[in-house]
């Protein structure tokens, strides 16, 4: 309790000194000294209770005042948002109207209809204005580009389940445009749309084909894979694809699994995204990285199940796979769009920047380090042709935000929510006192050049795999890829991210300070 005038005459032992306290002196007529002391202490106690009570009343009054003030400001804010919403809605209705009339004038696009799927893709790409309209009405992407067969015969010819992605919004209907990040309202710049809202996937037709990818050499994973395959086939009537190795394992268990499909070569792998509606991974983060690496282009939604420890990208516990898959196959699903980096190695001997080896897509990071050399690496770094710095140390990590909790974190980089579109620039053991990690915007192109005067080659590795030597004169060019990895969330992007850093890293875990002790009031 705070020091107070009322108890300022209390001595060190906690009792009132008779010489200082006239009130105490007036009771000196009582014969027994013990009774007197008892009375003294009960008076002090009731004083104490009164003080405590008045403090409590003051706190309640303060809280009530704050609540009233908060309510008033919340009401004002709500009114302002409502006004903005009405404005935006009116603007969108006007735009919609314009689009409709434009369409009538153009003969409803019928004249532009093309007969092959390939042409249809080109049509979508080329007619930017039209695709804008399709996006603004249907959300992020209407999945048109993944359709094949005759576009006129519509859903009967679909080989893949079509779905719709949209930003989640609180209202029933969102009329907002996906590209409308900044709006100009009466000459003032306002942010109309957040770039990283929770994304929701809604199936427009039922998923039919599932690809199951599993961590190798694990008996528990093999058993779960067999059980899940049977359940998906018998209960959900789905087609199942697995890796050739897994098909053999399943057939060793029983010939029942002969319905399971697989592929023969890389060409068939490159076409998987046109057949598969959903990818299920059984393993840890490494299996999610493996799944991502199989898709060099678009990636179907991935449902990552963790076996054993909770991974950072595997929020689904395998024990409850039936409930999770039931709800995922039904939809809608909250999705994290995990950005990937596309990396090109440009050799010194190349005649032009465009003469590169096959690009490599990474979900976590690309690392350029000193490999087995004991010399410092010397890496010249450029960002959109501006010189950034020269890394002298063990190396450099260019990481996605999904990879921010992996190697980059170990090298001192920040942890970033996976839905934030950025590139982390994290040095490994820089021999300098002032080299802090950076986070760069998603639209930049980074170039890491091995100088001609470097004492040794550098080594690039991609998601911890596929090491490539970079000789003096070679460069690694890296930018954000077009094709993210959509992973299903257990709850939503933010909840899953926070849970993974709490449970996976014990982030900021500390014993709570006890209540008693010195305090400021
Ligand atoms: N010093 C380090 O921390 C270090 C060193 C090398 C590689 N790595 C990481 O390992 C990754 C390859 O993983 P792997 O499973 O194939 O190899 P692995 O089996 O060697 O596992 C590496 C560990 O990193 C974890 N991990 C992977 N991706 C993660 C992510 N996005 N967030 C948090 N943790 C993550 C895995 O769960 C695992 O515990 C690389 O991409 C790299 O990020 C880390
Ligand atoms: N289908 C696959 N084929 C080949 N290799 C794979 C496959 N799936 C995973 N791997 C590799 O196996 C290794 C271990 O996988 P994973 O990280 O999933 O398991 P884990 O190490 O047990 O998980 P955790 O680190 O979360 O405990 C990784 O290096 C990964 O690249």
Query: Which word captures the global form?
Result: globular
> Kindly, what is the distance between the CA atoms of the first and last residues, rounded to a whole number of angstroms?
9 Å
Largest sheet: 11 strands, antiparallel
Number of DSSP strands? 22
Report low-confidence residues grouped into runs of 5 or more. 1-31, 102-138, 141-156, 174-178
Radius of gyration: 33 Å
Q: Can you put this structure into words, describing what you see?
A:
The protein has helices spanning 22-25, 33-105, 117-126, 128-138, 219-236, 244-253, 266-270, 285-294, 321-330, 407-410, 493-505; strands at residues 163-167, 182-185, 188-191, 199-203, 209-214, 239-242, 278-283, 302-306, 316-317, 333-338, 341-346, 360-362, 365-369, 377-383, 386-399, 422-430, 438-441, 445-449, 458-462, 465-470, 475-480, 485-488. With 521 residues, it is of the alpha+beta class. Residues 1-31, 102-138, 141-156 and 174-178 have low confidence and may be disordered. Adenosine-5'-triphosphate is lined by residues 213-216, 243, 283-287, 289-290, 308-309, 311.
């Amino acid at each position: 309790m705070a020091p107070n005038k009322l108890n300022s005459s209390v001595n060190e032992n906690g009792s009132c000194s008779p010489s200082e306290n006239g009130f105490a002196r007036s009771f000196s007529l009582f014969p027994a000294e013990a009774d007197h002391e008892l009375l003294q202490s009960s008076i002090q106690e009731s004083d104490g209770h009164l003080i405590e009570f008045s403090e409590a009343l003051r706190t309640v009054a303060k809280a009530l005042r704050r609540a009233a003030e908060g309510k008033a400001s919340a009401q004002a804010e709500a009114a302002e948002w409502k006004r903005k919403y009405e404005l935006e809605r009116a603007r969108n209705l006007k735009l919609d109207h314009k689009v409709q009339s434009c369409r009538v004038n153009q003969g409803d696009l019928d004249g532009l209809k093309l007969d092959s799927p390939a042409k249809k893709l080109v049509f979508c790409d080329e007619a930017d204005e039209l695709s804008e309209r399709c996006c603004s009405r249907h959300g992020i992407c209407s999945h048109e580009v993944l359709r094949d067969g005759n576009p006129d015969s519509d859903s009967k010819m679909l080989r893949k389940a079509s779905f719709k992605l949209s930003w989640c919004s609180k209202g029933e209907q969102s009329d907002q445009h996906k590209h409308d990040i900044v709006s100009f309202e009466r000459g003032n710049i306002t942010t109309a749309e957040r770039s990283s809202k929770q994304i929701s996937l809604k199936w427009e037709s039922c998923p039919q084909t599932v690809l199951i990818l599993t961590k190798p050499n694990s008996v528990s994973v093999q058993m779960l894979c067999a059980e899940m395959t049977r359940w998906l086939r018998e209960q959900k009537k789905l087609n199942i694809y697995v890796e050739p190795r897994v098909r053999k394992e399943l057939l060793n268990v029983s010939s029942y699994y002969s319905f399971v499909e697989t592929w023969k070569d890389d060409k068939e792998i490159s076409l998987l995204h046109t057949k598969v509606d959903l990818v299920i991974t059984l393993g840890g983060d490494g299996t999610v990285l493996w799944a991502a690496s199989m898709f060099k282009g678009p990636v179907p939604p991935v449902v990552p199940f963790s076996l054993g420890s909770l991974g950072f990208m595997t929020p689904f516990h395998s024990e409850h796979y039936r409930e999770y898959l039931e709800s995922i196959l039904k939809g809608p699903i909250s999705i994290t769009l995990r950005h990937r980096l596309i990396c090109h190695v440009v050799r010194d001997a190349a005649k032009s920047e465009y003469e590169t080896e096959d690009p490599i897509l990474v979900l976590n990071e690309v690392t350029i380090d000193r490999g087995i050399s004991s010399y410092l690496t010397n890496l010249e770094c450029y960002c959109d042709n501006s010189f950034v710095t020269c890394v002298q140390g063990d190396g450099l990590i260019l990481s996605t935000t999904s990879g921010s909790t992996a190697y980059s974190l170990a090298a001192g980089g920040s942890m970033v929510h996976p839905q934030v579109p950025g590139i982390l620039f994290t040095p490994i053991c820089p021999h300098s006192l002032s080299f802090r990690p950076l986070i760069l915007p998603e639209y930049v192109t980074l170039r890491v050049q091995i100088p001609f005067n470097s004492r040794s080659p550098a080594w690039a590795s991609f998601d911890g795999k596929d090491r490539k030597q970079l000789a003096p004169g070679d460069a690694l060019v890296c930018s954000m890829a077009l094709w993210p990895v959509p992973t299903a969330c257990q709850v939503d992007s933010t909840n899953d991210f926070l849970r993974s850093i709490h449970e996976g890293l014990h982030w900021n875990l500390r014993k709570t300070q006890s209540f008693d002790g010195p305090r400021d009031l």
